Queue: 2 jobs
Job 1
Amino acid sequence: MAQITIDSVAKVFETARKRTVALDQTSLTIDHHETVCVVGPSGCGKTTMLNLIAGFLRPTAGTITLDGRTVGGPAADRAVVFQSDAVFPWLTVADNVGFGPRMQGMARAVRAERIARFLDLVGLSDFAKAYPKELSGGMRKRVDLARAYASGPDVLLLDEPFGALDLFTKESMWTALKRVADAEPKTIVFVTHDIEEALFLGDRVIVMTPRPARVHGIVDVPFGPDRDLDLRADPGFQALRMTIAHSLREVHDDAS
Ligand SMILES: Nc1ncnc2c1ncn2[C@@H]1O[C@H](COP(=O)(O)OP(=O)(O)OP(=O)(O)O)[C@@H](O)[C@H]1O
Ligand SMILES: [Mg+2]
């Protein structure tokens, strides 16, 4: 099981110059093996929320639990993919993917099997021996995804992972992520500014308020797991896109 509960969480950043309340009384439950996409105004606190779930930050108040256990710090049960690549330039693609499993002490044969499996799922089997500098930005992102999956987390946290990619590369990343997620379901929290991306990938889309980030609205995505890129032409998809856009405009206007 991997259910995440964010219960009345506050996060306050205090520096010598400034006090910022990024989250306050923020609550959200993310179900086991659900993909939740989070959208919201820039600077509202989405990355902060992800960092709290990851255990990189501690809440100022409230609790975050994973299957009832309080998140106390980073652990192998949660993997994170950021917008910038988290690949080691001095390691081959295969060694990057196998790094987490090696740190966890997985046997060499198990590691090799996992590396092969996830490189295949992200479509990079032919590049196992390549170094990151020999890859395109989209390919490095695939390595990053394979790396995140290979260490066998229960939860995948993604912060605008495809934000820097062009549309076609992005589309191919959606397909790659869906393929891996179907093969190995996880509880996924995916932060994005791209409404179509959120609707294409999510079971629910959460619209956050301006800072402090709280849940402004939740959209249940009615499409089944078998989604192809043409789904975007569906009138139901476009109607939901408009609903979310309006919701975002509402919170934006409230803030300004
Ligand atoms: N380590 C930190 N120290 C001080 N303030 C911080 C820190 N991290 C984030 N903040 C502040 O908290 C607020 C929320 O930041 P956060 O990065 O979570 O926003 P975001 O929703 O992810 O924005 P974006 O969509 O632009 O990525 C911002 O005002 C930011 O300046
Ligand atoms: Mg952010």
Job 2
Amino acid sequence: MTDAHDPADHADPAEAVDRAAAADRAAGAAADGPPALRFPFDATALSAEPLRTERLVLRPIEASDAADVYEYQRLPEVIRYLPWPERDRASGFEHTAKRAAGRILAADEDFVFLAATLPGEPSTDDPARDRVIGDFMVRVSSVQHARLELGWVLHPDFQGRGYASEAAGAVLDFVFESLNPHRVEAFLDARNAASAALCERLGMCREATLLEEEYNDGEWQDTAVYGVLRREWAAARGT
Ligand SMILES: CC(C)(COP(=O)(O)OP(=O)(O)OC[C@H]1O[C@@H](n2cnc3c(N)ncnc32)[C@H](O)[C@@H]1OP(=O)(O)O)[C@@H](O)C(=O)NCCC(=O)NCCS
């Protein structure tokens, strides 16, 4: 006979599923072990041995890439959802030089920007060089918690052809394989549908929307938070 007051009789099946999912998650997280970023990392090595994808070559950005970068940095549609001011040529070149100074990942907020070059497409200021069609950021969110952030920009003439997915996928694989983060994340203006679609193509999940986090373009804007855990990335790769 069942005790009418036994709480088990009134258990909500959805709650039981939630509890099981939480237990699975805790077990998965515990199995991943404590944070262990392989730092310091010197990205200079990637200048000599760049990341290569089917169509692109990715190596640390250089100050001498400034002319190609300015070709997309100056466009209103590119900076629409980026925290970038409109820059004239001189300040654009200065900005690229600052970003090119990032080589060592060792502490929170350290960064490296990888220039995506397209072999066979001549650079805008030196036809002997391959053109930089976009750049891909790796930034340290937290050494203590083994979190890295990715970011990306591609010249509009080269969008809609899968180049950003190809480059960002290679960067994501590289950071998980070489730097050992527990989690990789991206923060987007929530209106940025192209960037959200890219996150999803990379296997990142939309984990949160931070309401009215920033005041841009004369109004409060939401921020979308995307993330992928090491074990989710490994499962997607079948490794
Ligand atoms: C975010 C951004 C990098 C995405 O670029 P993108 O070219 O749309 O991204 P992808 O490389 O993934 O290309 C996907 C598109 O190419 C198409 N495509 C064509 N060939 C493809 C291929 N071989 N593989 C994959 N996709 C291909 C896809 O169908 C998709 O088209 P759709 O947008 O019509 O659905 C770009 O919009 C950008 O630079 N924006 C400005 C800067 C910015 O906002 N950065 C993000 C800040 S958080």
